[in-house]
Amino acid sequence: MAKPSLFANPSQAPLAERLRPQSIGEVVGQVHLLDDGKPLARMLQSGQLSSLVLWGPPGCGKTTIAQLLAQAVDMEYQAISAIFSGVADLKKVFAQAQTDFDCGRKTLLFVDEIHRFNRTQQDSFLPYVEKGIVTLVGATTENPSFELNGALLSRCQVLTLKRLGIRALEALLQRVEIELKTELPLTLEARDVMKSMADGDGRSLLNMAEVIVSQNFKEPLTPSQLQDVISKRATQYDKGREEHYNLISALHKSLRGSDSDAALYWFARMLEGGEDPLYIARRLIRFASEDMGLADPQALPQTIAAVEAYERLGSPEGELAIVQALIYLATAPKSNAIYMAYKSAVRAAKSSGSLMPPKEILNAPTQLMKGENYGKGYVYDHDTPEGFSGQNYFPEDMGRQAFYSPVERGFERDIRKRLEYWDKLRG
User: Fold this and answer.
1) Which of 56, 202, 205, 274 could form a disulfide with 60 if both were Cys (CB 3.0 to 4.6 A apart)?
2) Distance between alpha carbon 130 and the CA centroid of its chain, in Å?
């Protein structure tokens, strides 16, 4: 069962602890899991709780849900944090769970930050989960498919919790006002700003509300006054983890979709999170070839120039050069024709073996090679009326291949016309 509060006098507890939901129905922002017919609701209705991994951002209710699940199904509740626990702590937890199991009581074991445990520690849960001694509920802010080993993951159902939306955050503020029996000293605009500053984190919102209430303001705070009182919450971004890859993917696809505004937003988000501008710039160089290629031959020089400008100027002045390249790439014609051509050529090279080039296009520096007809029959293209001989340059046993198919956009439109013209001459 859920353990009582650590605070002897509940009124002295932090606001976030005092407002912690006492039943599943009080949890906000996770209706996709808790409404009738949804995964957790079905489990509670059946009384059969399987091992779970709760994956979601900070302050979305993972710990609270775990406590309430134990209470709802009448199980012993134990909680540990992977940050502060080691092998000895796990042994104690498993020993207690075994004792309770022998007495006819199952244990819900909540493991906060479960992704912090190494592979061996994660494996130690397996026999206890398999035998039903513990029902594991792990909480993580990281993608479980990357951070948890397959054996443990296969025994748990992964449930994704969402960052709290504006409605859920407003519901929390209303609970604050009911608990304190007073309205928060905020203008409507400042109230909206504070919810935005919380960035989907309910705990952060409640902590901000507590700071404001503690200072006994006589007049409602304006947005600028609020920001003087409350420090902006750091953006959720970790350069070494999933958010890093999510945001660079969003940036790349915004560019591919020719949405310069969305690309600028994701670029700014990454910089706000502390990303190295040169990392983004290197991705832009790749983008210039992969998603534009010869549809706009200036894309690559523009991007390389932006990188050079940034290297000379540094931040923040040099960031504008990257922005210039970013907008150029977003608004220029797109083509992945050279990317697809290269992939096709690689497949052909791998499958064709070691075929020799046609002898007529090979040089013959020795008499022996001349005797073998190296270079015989080669036509020098510049000597032809069209500057085009139409010779075969592929291996004789392979036949001519078509890898590059330029699109009808940008400069590739002109390239397509040339290729069609040369095909006609070749024919």
Assistant:
1) 56
2) 32
For 343-372, the DSSP string reads HHHHHHHHHH-SPPPPGGGS---SHHHHHT
| Contact by Cβ (8 Å): 195, 160 | no
Give helix 319-331 / helix 299-313 axis angle, nearest 10°.
170
Query: What 3-state DSSP class applies to 95?
Result: helix
CA distance 141 to 53: 10
Structure tokens at 382: 């510049």
Q: Which residues contact 5 (CB under 8 A, 6 or more apart)?
A: 13, 17
Which ranges constitute the DSSP H helices of 60-108? 62-72, 87-102
The answer for residues whose C-beta is within 8 angstroms of residue 372's C-beta and 6 or more apart is 359, 364
**Type and span of the H or E element at 410:** none
Whether 29 contacts 98, CB under 8 Å: no
pLDDT in tens, 14-35: 888 899 999 888 999 999 999 9
Measured CA to CA, the distance from residue 13 to residue 16 in angstroms comes to 8
Report how far apart, in Å, the C-alpha atoms of 307 and of each of 113, 254, 270 are: 38, 20, 17
The Cα 230–Cα 77 span in angstroms is 36
CA pair distance 365, 344, nearest whole angstrom: 33
Q: Model confidence over 322-361: pLDDT tens digits?
A: 999 999 999 999 999 999 999 999 999 988 888 889 989 8
